[in-house]
Design goal:
- 38% of the residues are buried.
- With 177 residues, this protein is mostly beta strands.
- Strands 1, 2, 3, 4, 5, 6, 7 and 8 form an eight-stranded antiparallel β-sheet that branches.
- It contains one helix and eight strands; from the N terminus they run βββαβββββ.
- Strand 2 and strand 3 form a beta hairpin.
- It is globular.
Length: 177
């Protein structure tokens, strides 16, 4: 089980990945849960182990300007062999795509959100599905006029606020086997 301790300028963002097929004729406003997140979209991401020698490991996952956080979290889960985790976070973004699950289509309707955003709340988990880590999260973001939007995280572009020296940081507890 993972518990994330919120650090200053925390940010952990994720989405859902499963292995279900989807029809080819769906509009681009929908995305199938099975569409894997491309790797390598968080090239500046750094990971620090915070509690050496403990049975439950605690990590800080640090994203920098322009990193796509969901891609980075999936890479983190794979590289560190995370089998079970839970996390919460806050942070800042410059654009995101959330999803609303349409049970009729069995797909996510994309909710693109443009501009600078504050992550008001985020919760998610990492689990194994068919032997591979799957990252799943829900997020609520605030816009410049104070309105909020929420849903499953599909894409989240890190854009730290001025006080964070160009990066966003989160930490958490995770079991890695």
């Amino acid at each position: 089980m993972i518990k994330i301790k919120q650090l200053s300028y925390s940010l952990l963002l994720v989405g859902i990945v499963t292995t279900t097929g989807h029809p080819q004729d769906t509009a681009s406003e929908y995305v199938a849960p099975s569409e894997a997140v491309p790797m390598g979209k968080a090239p500046r991401m750094q990971v620090q182990l915070l509690n050496h020698g403990e049975p439950t490991k605690q990590y800080a996952v640090i994203f920098y300007q322009g990193d796509e956080a969901f891609s980075g979290l999936l890479e983190f889960a794979e590289k560190y062999h995370i089998t079970s985790a839970h996390f919460t976070a806050i942070g800042a973004l410059n654009g995101a795509t959330l999803g609303w699950f349409d049970p009729q289509r069995k797909m996510y309707k994309k909710i693109p959100i443009h501009g600078q955003l504050e992550v008001i709340g985020l919760s998610g988990d990492i689990a194994l599905y068919q032997g591979k880590p799957v990252v799943h999260t829900h997020m609520v973001v605030g816009t410049s006029d104070g309105t909020t939007r929420g849903g499953h995280v599909l894409v989240a572009h890190v854009s730290p606020d001025a006080g964070s020296n160009g990066h966003c940081r989160s930490g958490g507890d995770a079991e890695a086997f």
